[in-house]
Amino acid sequence: EIVMTQSPATLSVSPGERATLSCRASQSVSSNLAWYQQKPGQAPRLLIYGASTRATGIPARFSGSGSGTEFTLTISSLQSEDFAVYYCQQYNNWPALTFGGGTKVEIK
Amino acid sequence: QVQLVQSGAEVKKSGASVKVSCKASGYTFTSYYITWVRQAPGQGLEWMGWISAYNGNTNYAQKLQGRVTMTTDTSTSTAYMELRSLRSDDTAVYYCTRSSDYGDLPHWGQGTLVTVSS
Questions:
Q1: How high is the mean pLDDT in each 10-residue block of chain B (118 residues)?
Q2: The predicted structure's pLDDT at residue A10
Q3: Chain A interface with B: residues with Cβ < 8 Å
Q4: A94 pLDDT exceeds 80?
Q5: Of A17, A31, A15, A18, the residue nearest A88 (C-alpha)
Q6: How far apart are CA B63 and CA A101, in angstroms?
Q7: What's the rounded Cα separation, in Å, for the pair B48 and B33?
Q8: Most buried of A59, A93, B38, B99, CB within 10 angstroms?
Q9: Contact assignment for A98 to B108 by CB distance below 8 Å
Q10: Phi then psi for B31, rounded to 5 degrees?
Q11: What is the DSSP letter of B5?
Q12: What string of DSSP letters covers B47-111?
């Protein structure tokens, strides 16, 4: 099983600042990585797939980078609606999928 | 637009079974996989497995093998997830999702809370 490790567990950021979230895979997943945002009481929402492609309707302030085992989600200027939990997910090891443990982005 | 509408919350006793439904619309049901994901209270996301709506092929997470069954009814575009021998640690919100062609999950149901009590 491919293990996905996200860091930090919690990130405290002020509105308007940049947030950088990390995701590491225990073995290469190529570019088969997605990022999701989840707010309390809601289903996750796909932000990024293919490591760097924004999903439909996702603002340009969200960007993804990386390949192999190291990945980053960057939120260039945090808006109030961006405070949430973010998960990475690998789908290189299809048919088995795995998620990271999540990073909570909170208001500083 | 793609919609996945799940059945309502359930409360079950330990040892019982639960069956959650997921009705799909807005796309050709048999062209995609349905993937099930669960989330225990305050915890992260856990992949449970998937089913091909085209031919019924399934793949389950190893930890759930023997307790979970995923099925589809193509006549109603509905997917089902049954979990048996429920334990307290099965208490979670269960989501159905429609995979893309590659394995990311762009479409999610609203979630179904299953509470297991002793």
A1: 97 97 97 96 96 95 96 98 97 96 93 95
A2: 97
A3: 1, 32, 34, 36, 38, 43-46, 49-50, 55-56, 87, 89, 91-92, 94-102
A4: no
A5: A31
A6: 17
A7: 13
A8: B38
A9: no
A10: -90, -5
A11: E
A12: EEEEEETTT--EEE-GGGTTTEEEEEETTTTEEEEEE-S--GGG-EEEEEEE--SSS---EE---
Take residue A56 and report the two structure tokens written for it: 């439909």
Contact A95 B106 (CB under 8 A): no
Which pair of structure tokens corresponds to residue B71?
A: 């099925």
Q: What is the pLDDT of residue B101?
A: 84
How many contiguous H segments (helices) and E segments (strands) does chain A have? Answer: 0, 11
Residue type at position A67: S
* Residues found in chain B: 118
Place of tokens 């190893």: B62
Please report residues of A whose CB lies closer than 8 A to that of B61.
96
Question: Does B6 reach chain A within 8 Å, measured CB to CB?
Answer: no
Chain A residue at shortest CA distance from B49: A96
Q: A107 is written with which tokens?
A: 């208001």
Tokens of B79: 């997917």
Check if the beta carbon of residue B4 is closer than 8 Å to that of residue B95.
no
